[in-house]
Amino acid sequence: MFVIWISSLICACAAKKVKPGEFHPIPVAEQYRIFESLPEVTMIGFADSFSLTKEISAIEKEWISILYLERGFDLLAMSGSVFDVWLSMDLILNQGDQEGAIQQARLRGMPIGYQTAEMEKLLSWIRETRNRSEPFYLVGFGQEVASSYGWRNQFLFRTFAEVLRSYGAKKSVAQIESDLSPLLKLKKCKESGFPKSNTDSEGVKNAISSLGVLVAEVAGSVQERFPGHRHAMVLKALPAYFLSALELCQAGGESGKRIELEAKSIEFARSECSKSGRILLLGDFELLRNSKSTLGGALKAKFGDGLYTIATIPLSGEVIARTAPPGSVRIQGNETPVQSLFQGIESPSFIPFASLSPRAKRWVPLFQKSTAWIEGNSKPVEWSKEVNAFLLVPGISPSQKWYLDHLQFKKEW
Predict the structure, then answer these.
(1) Cα–Cα distance between 105 and 186 in angstroms, integer?
(2) Which of 68, 98, 103, 205 has the greatest number of CB atoms lying within 10 Å of its CB?
(3) Residue 409's pLDDT is what?
(4) CA 173 to CA 65: how far, in whole Å?
(5) Backbone angles phi, psi at 27, to 5 degrees
(6) Which residues fall within 8 angstroms of residue 360, CB to CB, at 6 or more apart?
(7) What is the average pLDDT value for the chain, to the nearest integer?
(8) What is the pLDDT of residue 20?
(9) What are the beta bridge partners of residue 132?
(10) Which SS3 state, helix, strand or coil, does residue 362 take?
(11) Which of 171, 163, 154, 245 is nearest to 213 (CA)?
């Protein structure tokens, strides 16, 4: 529970909706009022109801940078795979300011909802911190191999082999790629049906053993090159990650197993890779909401009040919704009860539930099961139980550049 001091109330509340004094939005423009009032927590999650928006991504980038500078949140965990994001960070750390490096880093590490120009700006900012005494670092927590959109191809492990060679691996690129090629069976294994038998997994286990030898050979070189970063530590954890990916495949991609492994991955990152023990999360609302059958719910069960979840909600404007196929969606402001409730807000605002007045506890859309609009689809949600705060943004527009916009015109999904 935390107290928010408001020097001036700025809200224009729609008739028959909410009244001044019942809720206290903090304008996003007054950032430090927000961050000075946040509780002391170890984990903050940004749960995006729509990911392909220009404004929300820009606000999240700004908040991430301030939480890093003011609160010591030195680690961001994304929903991309551990392996893919490590390859992305390797490019960010090694490539300096070469043209195209950030675009390639986006392709290597980002899942489909974050293949945007806004994500490139975040990656550029991460690169700017790399020479600080306490640099910022990016990890993935996804347990699937090759979940990033741009690298779903046969060259994934060739790229990794080239990276290992650059750190002093003695085997040739071709030999490393050959040794690790069985790991490709872990890619989209739910669709392929791998493994079909117990013996089917032996080749993958042997490849993981080979990876362990390679990692041990080059980890010292990685640590020497980037002593202030967690890059070598995450590299040394990759064999365990591939074992988890195999475990998920053996479970048929079952959601409960996935959540268990993702939660373990986040806890490892927080405890071992963050010098402050504090971590930020960024992902889809359906993933990070605090309900019984989600990753957010598993984290809430473990961390309790140490986890603070912010739902990002557009109130009006236009977005690209990741429906099938993706398409442009116009938001009028009355699609769900929550949007109708707060449609009087005229500028991006932060509303912590702890700041709501006692009278506000009667608001049905917040304190009983209501409807959320997630990527253009209606979903049931109990806001007061599943998130700690709203980031409400009117005047939304689509991402400045979505690199998969060709999917909007694809005849077959």
Answers:
(1) 22
(2) 68
(3) 61
(4) 37
(5) -65, 135
(6) 18, 22, 23, 366
(7) 87
(8) 46
(9) none
(10) helix
(11) 171
Q: Which residues neighbour 107 within 8 Å (Cβ) at sequence distance 6 or greater? A: 115, 148, 149, 150, 151
25: DSSP letter:
P
Return the DSSP state at 212: H
How many C-beta neighbours within 10 Å does residue 172 have? 11
In the chain, which stretches have pLDDT less than 50?
A: 1-16, 20, 411-413
**The pairing of beta strand 389-393 with beta strand 307-314:** parallel
CA distance 146 to 161: 15
Residue with tokens 């806004």: 118
Strand partners, 51: none
What pLDDT, on the 0 to 100 scale, is given for residue 2? 32
Contact 237, 82 (CB under 8 A): yes
> Residue 31 burial (CB < 10 Å; 0-12/13-18/19+)?
middle
**End-to-end CA, the chain:** 45
Contact 85, 139 (CB under 8 A): yes
The answer to whether residues 317 and 395 touch, using CB atoms and an 8 Å cutoff, is yes
Predicted confidence (pLDDT) per residue in 52-84, tens digit: 999 999 999 999 999 999 999 999 999 889 999
What are the b/e assignments for 67-97, b being 16+ CB within 10 Å?
A: bbeebebbbbbbbbbbbbbbbbbbbbbbeee
Contact yes or no for 367/405 (Cβ under 8 A)? no
* Separation of alpha carbons 408 and 217, rounded Å: 45
Q: What's the pTM?
A: 0.91
Q: What DSSP line would sit under 173-211, residue for residue?
A: HHHHHHHHGGGGGGTTHHHHT--SSSGGGHHHHHHHHHH
Q: How many CB atoms lie within 10 A of CB 383?
A: 22
Token pair, residue 228, equals: 């202030």
Per-residue confidence (pLDDT) for residue 360, from 0 to 100: 77
In whole angstroms, give the CA distance from residue 403 to residue 398.
12
Tens-digit pLDDT profile for residues 148-180 = 776 555 677 889 999 999 999 999 999 999 999
Amino acid at 52: L
Lookup result for tokens 């402050």: 276
Contacts of 403 by beta carbon, 8 Å cutoff, 6+ apart: 106, 115, 116, 150
